[in-house]
Specification:
There is one protein chain. It contains 23 helices and 23 strands. Strand 14 and strand 15 form a beta hairpin.
Length: 649
């Protein structure tokens, strides 16, 4: 992005545009005149919070950074928007059925999150989807609405199936979805033994291929689902067992984060015809589950790319309703209740991770003081720097050819210096001078390039200097714990300072986390139409915190994070809007302490302390450690066990 404003004319709106806040943030995030990120938890229905003020007040409640802030009003608003979109589509197309969604528990299994969704979705009989036995237990315990659906996906053993059958007698509506051919026999055997059956669904393995990051996970070679021959064999087996009357649902899934609406239309047409054929085979049906995949526009570009989507929520609902209606009408079949398993689209927006910057580092570009009798390579680098600073102008600007030649010279002289050092002809201080002068040449060239007219053709070697001179911002977080998808699948999330957006950032940088792992970094950021490897950032001020927000990461990140370097979960807080512009702290979830993560790895904190106490006694006995120092050491150890795994500010 080319910024044409000067520092004196920079506004908060420029900051919002730079970081894409005005594209991906609507309707929940914006910027105010103070340059602070604002949160509108109820979207365009009113009410807002200054995120910077909120973080300050939460710190006053002894909630240290990094801090995960969950806005429960956003969860409720996402549910409302999803149901409103389907209600409008149903009215527009005269659809004779209804919409009834479920939330996939795997998306975020945190208790307060799932409880909030169940309670907020009660008016629509909103249900849950389970992909494992543990998730099924969560769903059975929380969903007590007899009209809400419990979609049972994933691998299923005999106990899983029997649990679903017995839960139906509790007044629940579990639908066991057959996803593997060998599950049919287990369902039949369990039903015969218990004298009852679950509601049954089948997952079709569609030929339609998806696009984007998850495109290869679907289609004819997908992990889950039944091919058409297996579907027919399942119908026959259920009919022979007297269970065909329990076959109520057809399910399909074409991948997470569907970015192209055309793919969904093709899948809906294929699934619609399968649904029709199943009814013709005698199954009562009544439910069509279009799976998950409703995308999130992470970069705000509204394009069919991995970090975006080329459709709106209303487009999605319209296509689902219209396509299914058309398939059923052509065959005189009653339309089904429409079910979706939208997790990402519901949960992504509701949480914001705020972390602090601990410090920065950049290449040592300060010009070293000239020393008497400097080696030839060092003198050559000084002369090259002088040449860059006095480069002849072309139209008032330094010539790119001159700058390229000077940079080539600087690299050659640096290599000469390194060769001389290896052979013992250059001292360590002299090598340091050569490196500093090389970086000073790079900074001087970058400064001259910044003054070139827009549209000037710049050699790639010189363009690369921008990245080489960028700063590293040391972040108080673990990428592997709080944003694992940035590392695992190169997922893009909006990342930006939550304050000072009314100031033009004068530098570029990326983030390095606390782990001792080179992959522990955030070095991919959203841009205008394409991603970028560096983010425009401000220089931290002495004595003033510099806070960064990671947005749209409420889906999957919290539950997929790991304990790399034993960095545990962060502090988390649930916020809900109150009256008069106030807010209510609904829940506080304290992050893991050092003792807790040690116990996860089967280390006993008490035994650890005792071993170190004995070691300190031995050191005291040998005269290596004073009693007062031993007492201080043990006090530090005990305090550390009770503290968060992250750094204290």
């Amino acid at each position: 992005m080319v910024l044409t404003t000067t520092p004196s004319t920079w506004t908060a709106e420029d900051g919002a545009s730079l970081y894409g806040l005005d594209r991906w943030g609507d309707p929940y995030f914006s910027v105010n005149g103070r340059g602070h990120v604002m949160v509108q938890p109820r979207g365009d229905r009113g009410g807002s919070l200054d995120l910077v003020d909120l973080v300050q007040e939460l710190q006053g409640r002894d909630l240290s950074l990094p801090l995960l802030i969950r806005f429960d009003d956003i969860l409720e608003d996402r549910l409302e928007r999803l149901h409103a979109a389907f209600e409008r589509a149903i009215a527009q197309y005269g659809y004779a059925g209804r919409y009834q969604g479920v939330f996939p528990v795997k998306c975020n299994q945190q208790r307060h999150v799932v409880e909030q969704l169940v309670e907020s979705g009660r008016r629509w009989h909103f249900g849950l989807e389970a992909g494992s036995k543990a998730e099924l237990l969560i769903a059975l315990s929380l969903v007590d609405d007899p009209e809400a659906l419990l979609i049972c996906n994933g691998y299923k053993d005999r106990r899983y199936i029997e649990t679903a059958i017995l839960a139906r007698r509790l007044g629940r509506q579990p639908v066991v979805v057959i996803e593997q051919a060998d599950e049919v026999a287990r369902i039949i055997a369990a039903s015969q033994e218990l004298g009852g059956a679950p509601l049954i669904g089948v997952r079709a393995k569609l030929s339609t291929r998806s696009t984007g990051r998850w495109g290869s996970s679907v289609g004819e070679r997908a992990k889950f689902g039944l091919a058409v021959p297996d579907l027919l064999a399942t119908v026959q087996a259920l009919e022979q067992a007297g269970l065909l009357g329990e076959l109520r649902l057809l399910h399909f899934h074409i991948g997470s984060q569907i970015n192209d609406i055309a793919v969904l239309k093709d899948a809906l047409q294929e699934a619609g015809q399968i649904y029709v054929e199943l009814t013709k085979l005698g199954a009562p049906m009544g439910l069509l589950d279009v799976g998950g995949g409703l995308g999130v526009d992470y970069d705000g570009s509204r394009t069919a790319t991995a970090a975006s989507k080329n459709y709106s929520l209303q487009n999605y609902a319209n296509d689902v309703v219209a396509t299914v209606r058309e398939c059923c009408a052509a065959h005189g079949i009653a339309v089904p209740t429409l079910v979706s398993e939208s997790g990402r689209a519901i949960a992504s927006h509701f949480s914001v991770l705020v972390f602090d910057v601990l410090g920065t580092a950049r290449p040592p570009g300060a010009v070293p003081a000239e020393q008497p009798q400097e080696p030839l390579m060092v003198r050559n680098l000084r002369e090259t720097l002088a040449t860059i600073n006095a480069a002849p102008a072309a139209g008032g600007h330094a010539s790119c050819d001159t700058l390229q030649e000077a940079w080539n010279d600087a690299l050659k002289f640096k290599d000469d210096a390194l060769a001389a050092f290896r052979l013992g002809y250059l001292s360590l201080p002299e090598r340091a001078q050569a490196e500093q002068l090389t970086w000073a040449c790079a900074e001087a060239i970058a400064a001259r390039l910044a003054g070139l007219p827009e549209g000037t053709s710049i050699p790639e070697d010189l363009l690369a200097l921008q990245a080489a001179l960028a700063s590293t911002y040391y972040a108080n977080l673990s990428v592997f714990r709080s944003a694992p998808d940035t590392w695992a699948i190169d997922q893009l999330f909006p990342v930006l300072p939550i304050q000072r957006l009314d100031e033009r950032p004068m530098g570029l940088g990326s983030f390095a986390d606390l782990t001792c792992d080179s992959d522990g970094k955030i070095a991919r950021f959203i841009g205008t139409g394409q991603e970028k490897s560096l983010l425009e950032l401000h220089a931290p001020r002495s004595g003033e915190p510099y806070w960064i927000g990671l947005f749209l990461a409420g889906a999957y990140q919290e539950v997929m994070g790991n304990l790399h370097n034993l960095f545990g979960s962060t502090n988390a807080v649930h916020i809900r809007l109150g009256t008069g512009g106030n807010y209510v702290v609904d829940h506080v979830v304290r992050g893991d302490t050092n003792a807790e993560v040690l116990e996860v790895m089967e280390h006993d904190p008490k035994q650890l302390l005792e071993r170190l106490r004995l070691a300190s006694e031995e050191a005291i006995g040998r005269g290596h450690l004073a009693i007062s120092d031993a007492r201080r050491l043990m006090a530090h150890l005990r305090a550390s066990l009770d503290q968060t795994t992250y750094l204290a500010s």
